[in-house]
Amino acid sequence: MLNRCLDNDRFRVAWAIAAPLWLQRGSQARSARDGSDGGGGTVTDVSICLLGPLKVTRAGALVEVPGRRPRTLLALLAMEAGNPVSADLLADRIWGEELPDNPRGSLHTYIGRLRRVLGKEVVRRAAGGYILDLPRSSVDALAFVDLLDATGRHGGAEGAGVYERLEEAIDLWRGAPFDEPAGEPLAEIMRPWLVDRYLAALEDRASLDVAAGRATKAVADVRRVVADHPLRESLWAVLLEALASAGRTAEALEAYEEVRSRLADELGADPGTELRSIFTRLLVGDVATPEIAPSGGEPVVPEQRTSEEDSTAAADTVPHQLPADVPSFSGRDVELRLLDAVTIAHESGWPSVVVVHGVGAAGKTALAVHWAHRTLEHFPDGQLFIDLRGYGPGEPMDPEQALSGLLIGLGVDGEAVPDDVDAASALLRTTLAQRRVLLVLDNARDAQQVRPLLPGGESLALVTSRSQMRGLAAREGAKRIGLDMLTPGESVAFLHQRLGDRATDQATVRTLAEMCGHLPLALAVAAERCGRHPDVSLAALVAELDGESSRLSALETADDPLTDLRAVFSWSYDALDAESRAMFRRIAVHPGSDLSVPCAAALAGVGTGPARRLLDRLTEANLLREHRPGRFVLHDLVRDYALEMGSAEESEAAVRRLVSWYTHSLVAAAEIDGPSHRLMTLDPLVPDVVALGFATSQQARSWGEREWPDLGLAVRLAVRRGLLGAAYQLVNKMFNLSMRHSPAEVVALQEIGLEAAIEAGQEVDAAYIRNQLGISRARAGDLPRAISEFRAAAEVFRETGAAAGLEMSLSNCGQALSMTGSLDEAVAVLEEAYAVADVAGMADRARGSLIGLAEVYVRMERYQDAVRLIEDEIGQDPVDVESSSPRLTLADALIGLERYTDAEHLLRHELARHLEERSRWSEAKVLVRRAVIERETDRVDQARATLHEVVAILDEVGELDRTELTRERVDDLLASVGDGRPAGRGERASATRGLDGGVALRP
């Protein structure tokens, strides 16, 4: 399935290259197949407009397609109107990495919605997927492309009716394509290509207007759109030509200065050849001569070009400069297919530049050379190869030197090569004008180094670089293919090919691949090292490598910097400015798999604005990858290198900032709904760190859940660095989040925090952690050890006079005792907790103790006493009380009193709260009580359905708290409704036993 073999970045590249080609050829192919207008369907009364906000009509009437994902589904099917689309592809494009549990079922539901709106005859099953059975003319985006293709204006050719077809296509444009729905592959990939076609159509129409003497109209049309696309040089070129043809030369010169300034400010680049040529002609008053090439702002005179004899000699030269192919090349099947798609698209006139970019050691050169050898027949006039030395020992190659090498390789006499870069660049394009040559521009530093070397006409430039070459993509329309690490399967295949018969132990081979971080260079070095000792088992060699103090040391070579990972990474590092280097070193300290911009800002001790810019520089240099918007990943081996570059002091300061940021952000998340009790004193926020703030409770919860895995790693990192106070304070503030996670996982973290507090000599703080540890043990079902933790904490609080801590630990202890059946002892302990709070004047905590006592009364079947206590403490309308604990306890008591209507009313409001908060565990606690009421009121079928819903939640989230709900309890209730027998009073009394709201278990 597509989502199994392509990640999102690779799919976007594939779509960016292949989809425009499909659109260009789709109409032709379909027409040839069925003799129609290109569509395979017979329904003609449905119209779908994607060029702008989604608009769907049937029989002339607007129809509404409900739901964002169904609208995205419709857009995906519409872009393949008349052709089947596989269910796997649709699911991948609709949900991406967030696939639901049953994507095919959800997809079928959405298809049903579309059928109800459009009709079953329009949306049909076909070939393992679905088809929108409409002609292409019924979808405005496809009709738009077909009209433009019919003009025949690929590269400026003209034909009959061109102007009319351009007008008709442009009239279809209502706004940005796929403005709604915003399906990722459509909005991010197809939209730019369609916008490019639209702008090219406007340019073509304006050029025809100028040629027909309608220059004023052309000026108005182009000015209308150039403001929205200020970096598109071809638009400015048409505007300059139109202004000049209209006799408005002064305005044309002003427009040139405007675009020159914009390009300099936003891209750090000068205008391209076409704009400079027009500018030169404007200066000399020759607006009718399009062939003059600029050179430093001056026209190029004929004497500067190659002589006729030199041109003839160059035309007879067919260069073959490719290095030898890698004999054991393996993997990269996806990237090779993308490059093949580039070749096919290039033969249709698009694109002329492709960039393969990635981190050092990713195998960019090997891929480029291997593919170039595979595609020799597509470039019959030769292949040029040049190492631009952008990253490596020595200085990058100057464009002048590179141009000289390329021109001589093409047969131009060295003495005929101009010294001026612009003139030499023009000569390169002239020499390649009628030839199909592949130029492999390897190891490029930046766009400025590459731009003068780009060919024109039918030749293709394949650039490899550690830079993403954003400038080439923006100005020259370069198509980029990001090269990430190999997949695990590709890494294993790579090692099998290099190691041969020695690679028999699959587990050992996989371990070696993991050690190498799936980077091709690291894999090659490891295979070479293993090959030095043919008599030693692979397992022994891998164990030896694993025993090295550093993976980089294990994978270094002594005699060749080109195969030494430290050297390879250093070339990228050395190319950074000082600020970016510091950011690189400090974010490497982060222990998680990825990090956010605010997190990086905290690590580096800078603001989020500067942090975003520095992360962007690292991403552009391919030392960092933005795998999701705002989330960045460092490759493991690159991280190792970055850590080596940082000092111990710098790393420790970064850890201190990170943990402080996490801790105080957790405090802000906990207090979003109001101030919380801060029993443990926290260290102040570290200087140069700004904690997060949250606008809503949902925002705070979402952040906490996203960061949860990294919070635990940060605790362990702080302990390793000796930052004991920071470690246990972070553990303490993680408590609210911990209630949504496995008790066993939380116990392990709290034990680390407890040990840190004890080692730091902080007895009271250790008692706070011990109280939280007791809660987690109770959640895990280990009540005896939980009671022991509560009693130990209470002893410390009693000795130190910490009344709040003492009340809290006594309340928790009493609740735990009640769960073991020691009800009388539980009442005594809870009454003591109430007395401590009452004497200390802590009204809120006294109320909490009484509600805990009410829960014990429920267990003792003293339901009326429980109701009285709760209503005395929280009033007659518990629905408005913020905490859910008293409401659940009151519901338990009302069920015991057989006041089912009152209990159900209370639970209905409680369920609505938890559904809004998306708390599945809390939802399950409410539902199981509702099931008890449904059973007791003879709604057995409803009770059974509700309990199955509870089972589904438990399967999804696990048993987060055995003091509140267990799978065994749900199974017992299911058994009681399975045979339909009515429960007796004893069963009603036990119906909610073990379903405690957790009222007394407080941190």
TrEMBL record:
<feature type="region of interest" description="Disordered">
    <location>
        <begin position="976"/>
        <end position="1003"/>
    </location>
</feature>
<dbReference type="Pfam" id="PF03704">
    <property type="entry name" value="BTAD"/>
</dbReference>
<dbReference type="GO" id="GO:0003677">
    <property type="term" value="F:DNA binding"/>
</dbReference>
<protein>
    <submittedName>
        <fullName>DNA-binding SARP family transcriptional activator</fullName>
    </submittedName>
</protein>
<dbReference type="InterPro" id="IPR005158">
    <property type="entry name" value="BTAD"/>
</dbReference>
<dbReference type="InterPro" id="IPR011990">
    <property type="entry name" value="TPR-like_helical_dom_sf"/>
</dbReference>
<feature type="region of interest" description="Disordered">
    <location>
        <begin position="290"/>
        <end position="326"/>
    </location>
</feature>
<feature type="DNA-binding region" description="OmpR/PhoB-type">
    <location>
        <begin position="38"/>
        <end position="134"/>
    </location>
</feature>
<keyword id="KW-0805">Transcription regulation</keyword>
<feature type="domain" description="OmpR/PhoB-type">
    <location>
        <begin position="38"/>
        <end position="134"/>
    </location>
</feature>
<dbReference type="Pfam" id="PF00486">
    <property type="entry name" value="Trans_reg_C"/>
</dbReference>
<dbReference type="Pfam" id="PF13424">
    <property type="entry name" value="TPR_12"/>
</dbReference>
<dbReference type="GO" id="GO:0000160">
    <property type="term" value="P:phosphorelay signal transduction system"/>
</dbReference>
<comment type="similarity">
    <text>Belongs to the AfsR/DnrI/RedD regulatory family.</text>
</comment>
<dbReference type="InterPro" id="IPR016032">
    <property type="entry name" value="Sig_transdc_resp-reg_C-effctor"/>
</dbReference>
<dbReference type="InterPro" id="IPR051677">
    <property type="entry name" value="AfsR-DnrI-RedD_regulator"/>
</dbReference>
<dbReference type="InterPro" id="IPR027417">
    <property type="entry name" value="P-loop_NTPase"/>
</dbReference>
<dbReference type="InterPro" id="IPR036388">
    <property type="entry name" value="WH-like_DNA-bd_sf"/>
</dbReference>
<keyword id="KW-0238">DNA-binding</keyword>
<keyword id="KW-0804">Transcription</keyword>
<dbReference type="InterPro" id="IPR001867">
    <property type="entry name" value="OmpR/PhoB-type_DNA-bd"/>
</dbReference>
<dbReference type="GO" id="GO:0006355">
    <property type="term" value="P:regulation of DNA-templated transcription"/>
</dbReference>
